[in-house]
Hints:
Layout: H1 4-19, H2 23-30, E1 31-39, E2 42-45, H3 48-60, E3 63-66, E4 73-75, E5 80-85, E6 88-90, E7 96-98, E8 101-108, E9 111-118, H4 120-128, H5 136-142
Parallel strand pairs: 1-9
Antiparallel strand pairs: 1-2, 3-6, 4-5, 5-8, 6-7, 8-9
Amino acid sequence: MYSPDTFRDCVISQIDLLSEGKALEAFDQFFSDNVTLYDNGTLIASNAHDGRALQAKTLRSASDIKGSIPDLTIADDTEICVFRDHSSYAGKGKDRHQTNRLVWQKWRDGKVIQQQTFDGTKMETLIEGGILKSPDNLGRRRG
């Protein structure tokens, strides 16, 4: 039976995969077929197939992926989590690329049903507003 403990275990398992640099594996295991993905408030994919294709395109030219996921907060009662993504990878020219983004996820039955990522000013505004302490605040504002 699915429970808050199961939700927490799923989130932690996903974070473990991301920390190991296994973003596609995490996507395949933990994202719903009908997931919606947003980047800085703009819809970028309305299903897992399109979302995975976007990730695969980015990761295709990446090597030496080093996952770094600090600041994880899990809201068990609303099945929402939020974390910082500071992962890095080597690109085509072997230059290192550093990710600095905020990731907000709404889960249901062990799967991510909505993911919103933020960077730059939007990320800083959300962090200053306390999103890392109360991740469900974004869900209330966005519906």
